[in-house]
């Protein structure tokens, strides 16, 4: 089962995830990070940047693959995930941009972009740790309800709900692209460690469904139940609909230090 850790703040969750990622890079300097966008993972990137400022680590060989990208935004658009990853991750962590890939959302090459991305992940030896947020629809990456657990990187149609949720990053809701290229649930399942973060009451249903609900493609986050190494980092509000919340706290309080997360 996923390890669920309830923390009292986003900052605490970011610090815990960052410590795990830092330890990974220290033992594997060319580690492959799976990078998520959105508001949720920002505390992880901020904590990692702060840790690196205090105690530098060679980041020059670290590689990264973004989870998803909008289709059809012009190159350099500030809300393209390439631009977001550059701004929020590559620059603050001092990564080499040449080592970081995002799915190609160019409409001219959509037919082959998915398989090309899968090949690049495969050539890199796979993702060591995948950072994940979860949408209110239960999506991980942009795998909206109904996505196959075997899916690979491909074009998807965003739900209207997701477009409305993401409209805050654009001037108006109709500027949010209708399509995206996203790693599939099958792609995400191949990452060696998943760290899923969620904060706030509006994520409580999605977290309860992902952690404790039936495994169903109608609840894409429930794919985590099929993975052998998952860490779920949530605040009290996002944990508020978990039936086994007390057990998770009990298990975490009694785990051995060598287990890490
Ligand atoms: P958020 O998005 O982190 O901005 O809430 C999460 C997601 O849609 O996966």
Explain this structure.
The chain has 261 residues and is α/β, with parallel strands linked by helices. It has a single domain, classed as Rossmann fold (3-Layer(aba) Sandwich). It is 34% helix and 16% strand. It has eight helices and ten strands. The strands form two sheets. A seven-stranded parallel sheet has the order 1-10-9-6-2-3-5, sandwiched between helices. A three-stranded antiparallel sheet has the order 4-8-7. Helix 1 (10-27) crosses helix 2 (42-54) and helix 2 packs parallel to helix 3 (81-93). The relative contact order is 0.18. The model has no long low-confidence stretch (mean pLDDT 97). The structure holds 2-phosphoglycolic acid (PGA).
Task: Give the tags.
Rossmann fold, alpha/beta, binds 2-phosphoglycolic acid, Glucosamine6P_isomerase, seven-stranded parallel β-sheet, 261 residues, hydrolase, 10 strands
């Amino acid at each position: 089962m996923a390890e669920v850790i309830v923390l009292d703040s986003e900052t605490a969750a970011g610090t815990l995830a960052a410590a795990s990622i830092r330890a990974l890079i220290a033992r594997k300097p060319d580690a492959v990070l799976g990078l998520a966008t959105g508001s949720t993972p920002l505390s992880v990137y901020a904590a990692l940047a702060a840790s690196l400022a205090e105690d530098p680590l060679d980041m020059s060989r670290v590689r990264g693959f973004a989870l998803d990208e909008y289709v059809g935004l012009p190159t350099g658009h500030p809300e393209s995930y390439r631009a977001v990853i550059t701004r929020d991750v590559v620059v603050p962590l001092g990564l080499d941009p040449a080592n970081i890939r995002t799915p190609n959302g160019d409409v001219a090459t959509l037919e082959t972009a998915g398989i090309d991305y899968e090949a690049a992940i495969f050539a890199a030896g796979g993702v060591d740790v995948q950072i994940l947020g979860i949408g209110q629809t239960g999506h991980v990456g942009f795998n909206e309800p109904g996505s196959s657990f075997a899916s690979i990187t491909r074009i998807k149609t965003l739900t209207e709900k997701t477009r409305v949720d993401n409209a805050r990053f654009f001037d108006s809701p109709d500027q949010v692209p209708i399509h995206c290229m996203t790693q599939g649930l099958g792609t995400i399942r191949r990452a060696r460690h998943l760290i899923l973060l969620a904060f706030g009451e509006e994520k409580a249903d999605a977290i309860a469904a992902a952690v404790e609900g039936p495994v169903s493609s109608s609840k894409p986050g429930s794919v985590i139940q099929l993975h052998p190494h998952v860490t779920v980092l949530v605040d009290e509000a996002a944990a508020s609909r978990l039936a086994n919340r007390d057990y998770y706290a009990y298990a975490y309080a009694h785990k051995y230090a060598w287990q890490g997360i």
